[in-house]
Amino acid sequence: MTTCVVCVTTVDDVTVIATESLSKRFPRVTALDRLSVDVGPGVTGLVGANGAGKSTLIKILLGLSPATEGRAEVLGLDVATKGAAIRERVGYMPEHDCLPPDVSATEFVVHMARMSGLPPTAARERTADTLRHVGLYEERYRPIGGYSTGMKQRVKLAQALVHDPQLVFLDEPTNGLDPVGRDEMLGLIRRIHTDFGISVLVTSHLLGELERTCDHVVVIDGGKLLRSSSTTDFTQTTTTLAIEVTDTDEHPDGTRAVREALHARGVTTEDGSGLPGSGHVLLLTAQGEGTYDLVRDVIADLGLGLVRMEQRRHHISEVFTAGEHSSDEQRKEAVGHVR
Ligand SMILES: Nc1ncnc2c1ncn2[C@@H]1O[C@H](COP(=O)(O)OP(=O)(O)OP(=O)(O)O)[C@@H](O)[C@H]1O
């Protein structure tokens, strides 16, 4: 953030969240450490390992917890003095299970809508629309205590949206979901912005999943900013080619045959078999179009089938591998969650 803290910001403007040298210190731990970052409209991922400071940042941005130092604005409102006004305009889906088990989703979301100031009829109408939007239908009349984790996450999402906010904070919305449930939740999150124009700040320690959902990604580690950039900048293509081939009776280890043939032509390769989702993969640096032709010809001469030849993309996890500030434990945990 520049010196112009006060002159930024509405959803139509460029910045919806701005922090400047924001710190939060607890007696034994610094949860946020001089964090300065601007977030624009759209879907933004706030990524970091467990304990990186994501929930702490959200609580400060909602005006629920005071910062130790620095300042922050949400939709142009100072978090230190305008917490109530911020919470009128911002929806919040907390990380932990906080739903009353004995009431139905409809009763609960109507209650939350009323708490946000909606009159009774509007609260009931908005609740019906919002629960339908998050994919809860007949179940919405049953007590929440009998819901699956995925259904509970949808109720938490619905209560965050029911008062028609300009911005929502979603804290680990895919927590506890299986892969299908996670994909459905990520699809819902994307539609919050595309269908309703609501900006989203969504946290996750699963670095890979936000690559597909977010326009912009902010990575924090140990309370410090590691990187903030558009998802396309994060995942731009590299000059590394990944090649995978079939085996044949003549070449029972096709990968090895290709490696030796390429070496004989002066092209060095690396083993990429450890990469996520990879079988036997060779990596090499592309030196223009000629490299593609050479690889194709080598594979054809050996009589092997080409399973794939693709340019590798960067992954958000690589920020952690390069990060200077991360503790080894946090880095291992974050990278371990990518796959
Ligand atoms: N009220 C508190 N008192 C003391 N320490 C706290 C408090 N709240 C958070 N912390 C500590 O601050 C650090 C950041 O916690 P925070 O919950 O913000 O992390 P996070 O990135 O949201 O991770 P997670 O997803 O595991 O909650 C952690 O070391 C945590 O133990």
Please tell me about this protein's structure:
The strands form three sheets. The chain has a six-stranded mixed sheet, sandwiched between helices. A four-stranded antiparallel sheet has the order 2-1-4-5. A four-stranded antiparallel sheet has the order 12-13-11-14. The longest helix is centred in the middle third of the chain and has 18 residues, at 179-196. The protein has helices at residues 54-61, 83-89, 105-115, 120-133, 149-161, 179-196, 207-211, 231-234, 254-264, 289-302, 317-322, 328-336, and strands at residues 17-25, 30-39, 43-47, 69-74, 77-78, 90-93, 167-170, 199-204, 216-221, 224-230, 237-245, 270-271, 282-285, 306-313. It starts with 16 loop residues before the first strand and ends with a helix. The radius of gyration is 24 Å and the shape is elongated. The chain is α/β, with parallel strands linked by helices and 339 residues long. It folds into two domains: 17-234, P-loop containing nucleotide triphosphate hydrolases (Rossmann fold); 237-313, Alpha-Beta Plaits (2-Layer Sandwich), CATH 3.30.70. Residues 1-12 and 323-339 have low confidence and may be disordered. The chain is 35% helix and 24% strand. The structure holds adenosine-5'-triphosphate (ATP). Residues 325-339 have a biased composition (Basic and acidic residues).
